[in-house]
């Protein structure tokens, strides 16, 4: 006769083994998500890639819901919240809503009596996800990991209440194991995706750095050689233009030639700015005064373009850096903002102090930029203007970096663009000293 205790222990051990095996299977299904992210985004970053990544998440969602982990009773465990989380926070909330609709339809087919509960439950989840998606990208790497780990706490509590209500208290230990496994899996998926994003960002920076080095080496050797014959050509064209015997058409051609020479000269200046060694100057700059000077300098150009420039500047804003380069940055960005408003409009420059930083916001009402354009902005030879080279913004971003500053760009097509420049404020003692000297 067989021992009942031994039989029960063997059966129990087999059930636990089966449950662990199912959890492991779900874990490997979820690893499809970071793997697909790694493969797809290494090739290119476009709409097609995003769609394929969404399909990979949908495949993971379908598989985990189709083969849920189960030991006894009617309580099933799956990892559907992981692809749902990734879609909301790493793709688009709109696609996340489609996933929610699919989950509700799928579960309603299995148990039609739960439709109202599902609508309420996933409606709340969707609202929370949509709200949190606006803040998620601002989180640091570690904050995202912690957020992912804490995400399963309310889910575990609701499932615990469901188990207690059903009377299957023997399942609580399994719930704990499953919740721990789910939290670990989600944090691993987030970690791997973020790691991939960091590597992609570093690759882009290295590519841009290579381009910058190539341009810098070329600039010094070529720019001066081009400028010398250009000066002669400009001089002869101006002499010819002063001739009264020219026809109207000839005069127009010469004017166009002089205008193109002027544009070429500006491109050469941009090249020379790249070739110039990095400025080690760390002088005290009055951000207030610099912006006022740029405002006065750019106002005539804005008037010609039918653009109204407005300023809202706090007093006594001081930063450390090179005043000439700072002015160059502000002129470049302001000029771009004016040129983006082909039909006229308003450009606002704000300067204020925030969290120990001097912040400059340059806000235009221009044509705006798409997400694709935003990712390429500041790269060599990329420009949204027909006759642009992209060097102006590239130089500006390089200067900002050398001054220990940072920039943020918010833009939407047909809704204008906001450039935010952030620089560490100079120590209080230094700008008190300069204020005393000025007074």
UniProtKB/TrEMBL annotation:
Pfam families associated with the record: HATPase_c, HisKA
Domain of life according to the entry: Bacteria
Catalytic activity, reaction form: ATP + protein L-histidine = ADP + protein N-phospho-L-histidine
Residue spans crossing the bilayer: 23-41, 50-69, 81-106, 115-135, 141-162, 174-193
Entry EC no(s): 2.7.13.3
One GO MF term: phosphorelay sensor kinase activity
Keywords recorded for this protein, A-Z: ATP-binding, Kinase, Membrane, Nucleotide-binding, Phosphoprotein, Transferase, Transmembrane, Transmembrane helix, Two-component regulatory system
InterPro entries: HATPase_C_sf, HATPase_dom, His_kinase_dom, HisK_dim/P_dom, HisK_dim/P_sf, Sig_transdc_His_kin-like_C
Ranges of residues in domain Histidine kinase: 221-427
UniProt name for this protein: histidine kinase
């Amino acid at each position: 006769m067989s021992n009942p205790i031994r039989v029960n222990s063997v059966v129990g051990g087999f059930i636990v083994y089966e449950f662990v095996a199912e959890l492991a299977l779900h874990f490997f299904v979820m690893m499809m998500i970071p793997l697909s992210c790694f493969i797809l985004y290494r090739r290119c970053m476009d709409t097609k890639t995003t769609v394929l990544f969404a399909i990979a998440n949908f495949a993971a969602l379908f598989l985990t819901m189709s083969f849920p982990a189960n030991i006894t009773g009617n309580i099933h465990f799956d990892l559907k919240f992981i692809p749902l989380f990734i879609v909301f926070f790493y793709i688009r909330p709109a696609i996340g809503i489609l996933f929610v609709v699919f989950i509700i339809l799928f579960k309603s087919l299995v148990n039609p009596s739960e439709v109202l509960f599902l609508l309420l439950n996933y409606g709340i989840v969707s609202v929370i996800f949509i709200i949190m998606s606006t803040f998620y990208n601002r989180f640091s790497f570690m904050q995202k990991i912690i957020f992912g780990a804490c995400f399963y706490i309310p889910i575990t509590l609701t499932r615990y209440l469901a188990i207690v209500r059903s009377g299957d208290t023997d399942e609580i230990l399994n719930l704990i194991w499953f919740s721990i496994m789910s939290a670990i899996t989600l944090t691993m998926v987030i970690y791997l995706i973020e790691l991939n994003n960091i590597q992609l960002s570093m690759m882009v920076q290295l590519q841009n750095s290579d381009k910058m080095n190539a341009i810098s080496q070329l600039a010094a050797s070529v720019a001066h050689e081009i400028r010398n014959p250009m000066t002669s050509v400009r001089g002869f064209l101006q002499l010819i233009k002063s001739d009264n015997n020219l026809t109207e058409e000839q005069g127009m051609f010469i004017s166009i030639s002089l205008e193109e020479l002027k544009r070429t000269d500006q491109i050469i200046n941009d090249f020379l700015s790249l070739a110039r060694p990095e400025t080690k100057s760390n002088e005290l700059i009055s951000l207030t005064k610099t912006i006022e000077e740029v405002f006065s300098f750019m106002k005539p150009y804005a008037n010609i373009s039918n653009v109204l420039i407005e300023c809202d500047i706090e007093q006594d804003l001081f930063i450390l850096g090179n005043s000439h380069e700072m002015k160059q940055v502000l002129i470049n960005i302001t000029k771009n903002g004016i040129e983006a408003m082909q039909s006229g409009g308003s450009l606002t420059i704000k300067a204020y102090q925030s969290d120990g930083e001097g912040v400059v916001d340059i806000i235009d009402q221009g044509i705006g930029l798409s997400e694709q354009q935003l990712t390429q902005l500041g790269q060599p030879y990329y420009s949204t203007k027909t006759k642009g080279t992209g060097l102006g913004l590239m130089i500006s971003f390089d200067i900002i970096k050398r001054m220990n500053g940072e920039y943020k760009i918010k833009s939407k097509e047909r809704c204008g663009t906001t450039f935010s420049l952030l620089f560490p404020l100079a120590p209080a003692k230094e700008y008190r000293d300069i204020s005393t000297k000025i007074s």
